[in-house]
Design goal:
Blueprint (H helix, E strand, L loop, with lengths): L1 H23 L5 E3 L5 E4 L4 E8 L8 E5 L6 E6 L2 E2 L12 E7 L4 E6 L8 E9 L2 E12 L3 E11 L2 E11 L4 E6 L4 E2 L3 E6 L5 E9 L6 E7 L6 E7 L10 H64 L8 H4 L4 E2 L13 E3 L5 E4 L11 E4 L2 E4 L2 E3 L8 E10 L7 E8 L16 E7 L2 E4 L5 E3 L7 E7 L4 E6 L4 E6 L8 E8 L3 E5 L5 H4 L30
Parallel strand pairs: 2-10, 19-25
Antiparallel strand pairs: 1-3, 3-8, 4-5, 4-9, 5-6, 7-8, 9-10, 11-12, 12-16, 13-14, 13-17, 15-16, 17-18, 20-21, 21-34, 22-23, 24-33, 25-30, 25-34, 26-27, 26-33, 27-28, 28-29, 30-31, 31-32
Length: 544
């Protein structure tokens, strides 16, 4: 066991020695630059030194000093000589290599005639074969300009204004005012500018109001180098302005007079603004009155044109009502399907909830659809007149299963067992189903309306053979059956299915009380068809 342990220790020592030998024979090295910033005066020369560790000859290495980018070369040494192809224009003729100790790995680049633009960060780069390292250097260029110079500008604001100027400084110097006892005085203002060479020009101002401060100094100090320049000025006491008693009285009177004049001006301006505001309100009222009169006149003009040929205009539902007789429609309970619930006054209809779709009710199979129709007729017999009535549609849901229809049908139309709501079967109705308004003609038109109709006006013109439907909320036209040859007696027709849906008939003598007020009747609902072969009609009789 002891022999095994000795063998393990010997093996570890062998590997450590082998690792050290491999490191000594390696080409790896470090590049070391100055740990502190290099400070140099503006216009003077300076050197930026770097060395490698461990010490070795760098004659055959690539050596480069550059700014923030590798391509911004300050100096390039390669193949034993200077390379100027990549050197920045600002450093051509101003940079050289100091290589007195190049065999020991210590070199430097000397820059002549330092400029403000030379201030900043540099990097020195050494490359040997595939190994390379770099170090960072900082150069701070110091410019001690002329000044400060103090000038007495003159009396101002109960004191003496002093101005301290200096130029040719870099970086921007710190300016400080002090009195004879060394107490610091804050500047009233400081303005600095840079000339084309980047040097700062400083101008600081101060107002001295204390006549005891007859000696004031201005200093400018470089924040990095710490060198300071100072100038002192003496202010004779007679130079300070004195306040006479009559001046104080005059100022007080002047202030009071100014307040009085200001109050008069303010009141006059306020009165003028009030008059202007009143005039503006009156003008707005006058313009509003004119606009109302103009609108009323325009409506009268349009109504006269409409009345001249109202049959050709499929708009203005409220004006259209003047040519029709209002019918007080009441539901006939004897014609109602068992799954419909009618109100006592015969004006409201809704569907029983949870009614099975395929129970004992008549169903209709056509083109893969199964449809249940629960219908009821109105008591009114419609013959030989222009008549209209309005129906309010109430839906709490617009999902599947909701279906309603309204219009007219022949008193003899079949409504038991299998039947179809279509003009061919003497039904002239509009149908709502699953969010769409459908006209049950042979081509089965779908109407694309700007809004789902909530209150529908039904207009029957027996003599003209037309049956029209209008959205009474905005007065727009929904659809018209034309060229109808009515025969026999017509009855108002309603069908309904789906929970949460109901139809309410508005009283013919009091539509406004039973239904919501309609909005302006000048808009026109756009009509389109599911079948692209069906023409789209939205002709307006009157100009917009």
């Amino acid at each position: 066991m002891v022999c095994s342990l000795d063998f393990s220790l010997s093996r570890d020592l062998f590997f450590i020695l082998l690792l050290q030998v491999s490191m000594w024979s390696s080409d790896s090295f470090l590049v070391i630059g100055p740990s502190e910033p290099i400070v140099a005066m503006l216009g003077a020369d300076t050197v930026l030194p770097c060395r490698v560790s461990p010490a070795m000859s760098v004659e055959n290495m690539e050596i480069r000093w550059f700014r923030s980018q590798f391509s911004e070369a300050v100096y390039v040494y390669q193949n034993g000589m200077e390379q100027t192809g990549e050197q920045l224009v600002d450093f051509k003729g101003r940079a050289e290599l100091v290589k007195d100790y190049i065999t020991e790995g210590r070199v430097a680049v000397r820059i002549y005639s330092l400029r403000v633009s030379d201030n900043g960060i540099y990097k020195c780069f050494f490359k040997k074969g595939s190994d390379f390292e770099e170090a960072i250097l900082e150069l701070k260029v110091i410019g001690l300009g002329s000044g400060p110079r103090i000038f007495m500008v003159g009396p101002e604001d109960k004191g003496i204004r002093l101005k301290c100027t200096g130029k040719g400084w870099f970086p921007q110097p710190e300016v400080q005012w002090e009195d004879a006892r060394g107490e610091k005085i804050p500047s009233l203002s400081e303005d600095e500018t840079q000339d084309d060479d980047g040097l700062f020009q400083i101008e600081a101002s101060l107002i001295v109001r204390d006549s005891s401060k007859t000696e004031v100094s201005c200093s400018m100090k470089n924040p990095f180098f710490g060198q300071e320049q100072v100038e002192t000025i003496f202010i004779p006491e007679p130079f300070f302005p004195r306040t006479s008693p009559w001046k104080v009285a005059f100022i007080v009177v002047l202030v009071i007079l100014g307040i009085f004049v200001g109050a008069v001006v303010y009141l006059a301006r306020k009165e003028r603004q009030e008059k202007k505001k009143l005039s503006k309100v009156e003008k707005e009222k006058e313009e509003e009155s004119k606009a109302k009169e103009s609108l009323a006149s325009e409506l009268d003009r349009r109504k006269k044109l409409y009345q001249q040929d109202w049959k050709k205009a499929e708009l203005y539902a409220d004006w259209r009502k003047e040519h029709f007789k209002a019918v007080d429609v009441t539901l006939d309970a004897d014609t109602a399907h068992p799954n419909l619930i009618l109100s006592k006054n015969g004006k409201h209809i809704c569907s029983k909830e949870n009614v099975p779709q395929n129970g004992d009710t008549p169903t209709h199979q056509e083109q893969g659809e199964s449809e249940t129709i629960f219908s009821v007729l109105g008591k009114n017999s419609l013959t030989m007149e222009r008549q209209y009535w309005e129906v309010e549609v109430n839906m709490t849901d617009v999902g599947s299963g909701i279906r309603w229809a309204l219009g007219v049908c022949s008193e003899t139309a079949k409504r038991e067992g299998w039947f179809v709501e279509s003009p061919e079967k003497n039904f002239w109705v509009v149908i709502y189903k699953e969010g769409k308004v459908i006209i049950p003609t042979s081509q089965k038109k779908c109407l694309l309306l700007r809004q789902q109709p909530r209150r529908i006006g039904v207009f029957l013109d027996w003599d003209a053979g037309t049956m029209s439907f209008y959205n009474m909320i905005d007065g727009s036209h929904i659809y018209s059956f034309t060229g109808i040859s009515f025969c026999g007696t017509l009855r108002p027709y309603f069908s309904l299915q789906g929970a949460g849906t109901s139809l309410t008939i508005c009283s013919g003598s009091a539509h406004a009380e039973n239904c919501p007020d309609s909005s302006p009747k000048t808009s026109l609902t756009h009509l389109s068809s599911c079948d692209t072969n069906v023409p789209q009609e939205a002709n307006s009789l009157l100009p917009p």
